[in-house]
């Protein structure tokens, strides 16, 4: 079976058991402070498990693209070294939300693996939770008994809490799980040694393929467990591992998932791939590349560009790891990694279509990253060579610097060190790594208290599309502590507060006791921000005033003026996007957006700088649409498929529900899927002004703009500036002309001044030559000049040298408070050991400065002009001393 067939068989099987097949969620996670990337199939259903969202389908199955490169699940360092851990992999999963439980889940997994896929029964092992008395957790006898119906009892193994008890986090849903392992060793080996001992023992040929989690409990902050009101099943099977078993290979990389990539790499590098578990560096490098391209390409396709912070930095580091391996072991000194994108896009065509649809964009982003990293890499290698040449040992801190700054995987640093006959202090490296990890943990650590229930009720109705005030009840609240700051989070049954999403910032405002009537009531809760966490709308406040009656009705009022400014910017963003597509082309896709009360920031795909004329046209179109005062058309609850048919573009990397909201400004102009809040008619925007255009990344441009009040203030500012200039210029008719002529005049004057100085200096020559004082054999000249042009002084010094024998010349001058000295010595004195550079260092002390130069000519600058006279006197003393020696 091919991978496509294996994947399809899974989905068909569970569809046949009454499961709804749903699409994969994007790999980049939004609205979850605990997670950067999707790392399991269950992530997109978290809100159901937490009881925060209704169950749409009781049975669901899908294939989910996952990434395990950060946080709790981080397999990165294993990848490429072993044969069955990947950065990005597909997790096949089936779910029951309060529907079937252990019996069916176990029976169906057995039926699928042995019946549909035909895996021999004597290659399978299953594990069941053994219980943990200390934690008060019972043995999962039920699962044990259900398994007994299908598999020999001596193939059912008991496992501990680490392997067989699943928890979402420190608190929240949890329960026992049951894993299925496959022994892939050849028959002879299997006869020799019982596979049982190799289960969960990191043996590359006895691997876990499927985990069935039975969500039974909810864990509270104090560690105690509550039985969940509805019990769920959550399963995950790694597609690449399954494929390897069904295609009878000893490594995931030998399957049709990875072979097209590996063969291409092998062909282009002209190095053979030796297959399987070989630990040749070239093999590891090919596996790393074939694996990493998948993680990088899908992260970018889902909206996460490589960058220097957070999730973007994680992606950048993975990319660099791949490029570094390719460079060192496969000889790819020029950008190559990006060329894998088309192969990958073909493989996933029809499975995850977002890659094919953005193939050029993704490839271009990777190419640019490669170009800049190859430059960094060269610097890093130089740094290494220099460091080693200075006789340094490769200590942990240096290895860490290479790892952190230059993206050198530690095994490569070790190799480079070995080539120089050195070893790396691995303990030191690990310590430095641990320190960094601890630091980032501390920076992101949030201490979250349990929810404290206040009122009963349905959660979360958002009323803010229609009203800015709502009477509501507080349902629950909790205390959180992050970065040493305490805050409260509040959940209401209904709320006009918009929770940050789709680029629009969250609302601020107040909760007042409804009974108090007056909005000025002192006893109010000040809402500083509103955010989504999974499906919940969370209101943030720094303080709940003492005596606030939480159980009673509250009046929720958002900050209206702020919201109105935000709406101007949000609607303007829609008008801007449509105008960009009109002026630049339909390749323009949103790649990021920020809308707050001050301005809007819009990132979009486009491969060249937007020219000034293009920007002017875009701005003119938007302002035209503003003046047309187009009425907002808002449609809620449009079926997603219908919206697509009507030509509304969905964003990649965005997770849409079955029903969507469409925001239209003129059916023929702007139609977007959007959850944000908008102006009633475009005239409210007032005026739209672009303030900057720049590059964010390869192929991504950024426009920043302002609207309404801010645009008005900006224009007023500009006007004021012009008025001030006019006054300064004495109110000319044409300011441009007047400034131009000022500049012309200025440069003419400058030239004249320079000419004057040269002439003056030249005129000085004879005067100075006549002034030369005989000190022994030396002709000594010292003079303070009253002009400051350095070139003119240099000329003067050189021409004096031409005409005066045995010259020792010292010139001092003051250039607007900055004193300078010049010393010129003629060749005959230089031959006798005079040295202008040494002399000037002495003299420079008098003007609190320093300088130097050649034996015959030297200059110095300083800070104290009042020392110039003293410097000249000192020069005379030096001349006297030297004359005696000469
Ligand atoms: P392992 O112990 O092998 O790392 P796990 O316990 O981390 O596996 P789960 O979190 O239970 O795995 O994930 C469910 C399934 O997803 C696993 O049975 C496996 O088939 C697959 N899987 C997990 N991690 C990876 C990975 N890094 N690459 C490929 N497949 C994976
Ligand atoms: Mg794991």
From TrEMBL:
It comes from the Bacteria. GO terms for biological process: alanyl-tRNA aminoacylation. Its cofactor is Zn(2+). One of its GO terms (molecular function) is alanine-tRNA ligase activity. One of its GO terms (cellular component) is cytoplasm. The keyword Transferase does not apply. Its main location: cytoplasm. Zn(2+) binds at residues 570, 574, 674, 678. It holds the Pfam family DHHA1. The keyword Methyltransferase does not apply. Residues 1-717 form the Alanyl-transfer RNA synthetases family profile domain. Binds 1 zinc ion per subunit. Its EC number is 6.1.1.7. Transmembrane segments: none annotated. It catalyses: tRNA(Ala) + L-alanine + ATP = L-alanyl-tRNA(Ala) + AMP + diphosphate. SMART domains: tRNA_SAD. It is found in: Cytoplasm. Keywords: Aminoacyl-tRNA synthetase, ATP-binding, Cytoplasm, Ligase, Metal-binding, Nucleotide-binding, Protein biosynthesis, RNA-binding, tRNA-binding, Zinc. HAMAP family: Ala_tRNA_synth_B. Consists of three domains; the N-terminal catalytic domain, the editing domain and the C-terminal C-Ala domain. The editing domain removes incorrectly charged amino acids, while the C-Ala domain, along with tRNA(Ala), serves as a bridge to cooperatively bring together the editing and aminoacylation centers thus stimulating deacylation of misacylated tRNAs. Belongs to the class-II aminoacyl-tRNA synthetase family. Catalyzes the attachment of alanine to tRNA(Ala) in a two-step reaction: alanine is first activated by ATP to form Ala-AMP and then transferred to the acceptor end of tRNA(Ala). Also edits incorrectly charged Ser-tRNA(Ala) and Gly-tRNA(Ala) via its editing domain. This is Alanine--tRNA ligase. It comes from Arcticibacter tournemirensis. The gene is alaS.
């Amino acid at each position: 079976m091919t991978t496509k067939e294996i994947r399809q068989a899974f989905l068909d099987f569970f569809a046949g058991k009454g499961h709804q097949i749903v699409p994969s969620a994007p790999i980049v996670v939004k609205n979850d402070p605990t997670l950067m990337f999707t790392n399991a199939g269950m992530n997109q259903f978290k809100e159901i498990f937490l009881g925060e969202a209704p169950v749409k389908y009781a049975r669901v199955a899908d294939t989910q693209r996952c990434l395990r490169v950060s946080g709790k699940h981080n397999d990165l360092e294993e990848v490429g070294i072993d044969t069955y851990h990947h950065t990005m992999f597909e997790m096949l999963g089936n779910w029951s939300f309060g529907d079937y439980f252990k019996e069916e889940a176990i029976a169906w997994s057995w039926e699928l693996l042995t019946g549909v896929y035909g895996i021999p029964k004597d290659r399978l092992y299953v594990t069941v939770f053994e219980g943990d008395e200390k934690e008060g957790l019972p043995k999962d006898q039920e699962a044990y008994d259900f398994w007994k119906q299908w598999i020999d009892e001596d193939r059912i193994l008991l496992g501990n809490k680490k392997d067989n008890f699943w928890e979402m986090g420190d608190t929240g849903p949890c329960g026992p799980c049951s894993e299925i392992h496959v022994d892939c060793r050849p028959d002879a080996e299997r006869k020799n040694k019982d596979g049982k001992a190799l289960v969960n023992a990191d043996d590359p040929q006895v691997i876990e393929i499927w985990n069935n989690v039975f969500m039974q409990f909810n864990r509270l902050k104090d560690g105690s467990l509550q039985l969940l009101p509805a019990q769920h099943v959550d399963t995950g099977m790694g597609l690449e591992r399954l494929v390897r078993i069904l295609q009878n290979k000893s490594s995931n990389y030998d399957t049709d998932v990875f072979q097209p990539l590996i063969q291409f790499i092998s062909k282009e590098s002209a190095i053979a791939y030796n297959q399987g578990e070989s630990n040749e560096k070239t093999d590891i490098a090919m596996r790393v590349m074939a694996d990493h391209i998948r993680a990088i390409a899908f992260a970018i396709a889902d909206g996460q560009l490589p960058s220097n912070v957070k999730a973007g930095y994680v992606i950048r580091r993975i990319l660099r790891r791949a490029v570094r391996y390719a460079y060192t072991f496969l000889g790819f000194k020029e950008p190559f990694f990006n060329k894998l994108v088309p192969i990958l896009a073909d493989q996933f065509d029809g499975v995850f279509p977002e890659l094919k649809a953005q193939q050029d964009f993704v490839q271009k982003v990777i190419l640019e990253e490669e170009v800049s990293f190859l430059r960094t890499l060269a610097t890093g290698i130089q740094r290494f060579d220099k460091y080693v040449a200075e006789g340094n040992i490769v200590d942990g801190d240096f290895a860490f610097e290479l790892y952190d700054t230059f993206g050198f995987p530690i095994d490569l640093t070790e190799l480079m060190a070995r080539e120089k006959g050195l070893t790396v202090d691995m303990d030191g490296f690990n310590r430095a790594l641990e320190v960094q990890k601890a630091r980032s943990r501390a920076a992101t650590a949030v201490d979250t208290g349990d929810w404290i229930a206040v009122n009963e009720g349905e959660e979360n109705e958002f009323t803010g599309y229609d009203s800015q005030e709502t009477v509501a009840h507080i349902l629950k609240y909790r205390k959180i502590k992050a970065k040493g700051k305490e805050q409260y989070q509040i959940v209401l049954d209904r709320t006009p507060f918009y929770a940050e999403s789709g680029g629009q910032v969250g609302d601020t405002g107040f909760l007042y006791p409804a009974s108090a009537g007056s909005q000025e009531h002192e006893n109010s809760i000040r809402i500083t921000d509103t955010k989504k966490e999974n499906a919940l709308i969370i209101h943030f406040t720094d303080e709940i005033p003492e005596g606030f009656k939480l159980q009673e009705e509250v009046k929720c009022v958002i900050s209206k003026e702020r919201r109105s400014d935000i709406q101007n910017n949000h609607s303007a963003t829609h008008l801007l996007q449509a105008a960009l597509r009109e002026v630049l082309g339909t390749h323009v896709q949103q790649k990021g957006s920020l809308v707050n009360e001050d301005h809007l920031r819009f990132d979009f795909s486009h491969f060249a700088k937007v020219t000034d004329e293009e920007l002017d046209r875009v701005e003119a179109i938007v302002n035209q649409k503003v003046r047309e005062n187009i009425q907002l058309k808002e449609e809620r609850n449009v079926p997603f498929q219908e919206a697509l048919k009507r030509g509304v573009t969905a964003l990649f990397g965005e997770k849409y529900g079955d029903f969507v909201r469409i925001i239209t400004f003129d059916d023929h102009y702007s139609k977007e899927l959007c959850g944000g809040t908008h102006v009633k008619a475009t005239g409210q925007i007032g005026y739209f002004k672009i303030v900057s255009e720049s590059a964010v990344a390869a192929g991504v441009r950024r426009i920043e703009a302002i609207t309404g009040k801010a645009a008005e203030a900006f224009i007023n500012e500009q006007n004021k500036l012009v008025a001030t200039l006019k006054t300064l210029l004495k109110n000319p008719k044409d300011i441009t002309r007047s400034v131009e002529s000022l500049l012309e005049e200025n440069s003419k004057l400058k030239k004249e001044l320079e000419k004057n100085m040269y002439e003056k200096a030249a005129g000085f020559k004879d005067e100075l030559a006549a002034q030369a004082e005989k000190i022994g054999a030396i002709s000594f000249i010292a003079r303070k000049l009253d002009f400051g042009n350095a070139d003119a002084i240099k000329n003067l010094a050189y021409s004096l040298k031409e005409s005066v024998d045995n010259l020792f010349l010292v010139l001092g001058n003051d250039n607007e408070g900055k004193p300078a000295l010049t010393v010129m010595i003629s060749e005959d004195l230089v031959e006798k050991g005079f040295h202008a550079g040494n002399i000037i260092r002495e003299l420079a002390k008098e003007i609190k400065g320093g300088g130097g130069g050649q034996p015959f000519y030297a200059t110095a600058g300083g800070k104290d002009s009042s020392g110039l006279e003293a410097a000249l006197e000192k020069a005379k003393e030096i001349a006297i001393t030297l004359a005696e020696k000469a």
